[in-house]
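Hi F.,

I've been meaning to write this up properly since the lab meeting, where we talked about keeping a consistent format for the predictions we share between groups. The idea is simple: the sequence comes first, exactly as it goes in, then the structure tokens exactly as they come out, then a line or two of notes. No screenshots and no reformatting. I'm using this chain as the first example so we have something concrete to point to.
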Amino acid sequence: MLSELLIRRWNEFDDVAALTELLHRAYKPLADMGLRFLATHQNEATTLDRLSTGVGYVGEIEGKVIATITLYHHKSKHNAHWYDKPDVAVMGQLAVEPELQRQGIATKLICHVEEEAHKLGANELALDTAEGAHHLITYYEKLGYRFIEYTKWDVVNYRSVIMSKTLV
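Output, unedited:
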């Protein structure tokens, strides 16, 4: 199935409502854990804003969007000093349809974004996740990401772990 995966840039012809619903479905298990990630409840305007302030990518299989990720370069955020570094890019809004998870799609999206970040001149690719999402932290560690710092965003109900990977 992964040989059929097409990763491309998000464009204005993509259905923002459908992408928002995909985010809600993919993040539902985290919401069920009591973790209020923005993607668990964001509206279409927020999805569009997050895509537009970075470079959004979608994963397609047979013409159907089944995954997404967004790359931000030089994303300055309060409370995250690592994100303010000029050679650090940030990825976020990663989601895969629940029935297609654990098939390597997210890893392919992350690898794609790592390559794109490197092309933009970033030496590091960073992300943040909930401190209580141990399965995600372990997953990112297996991909080479390391702990950088903790922060607390106003829009979530947990302390976040910022992780980063040196790009080669």
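Notes:
The longest helix spans residues 16-32.
Strands lie at 6-9, 55-61, 64-73, 88-96, 124-130, 146-151, 160-166.

If this format works for you, I'll send the rest the same way.

G.
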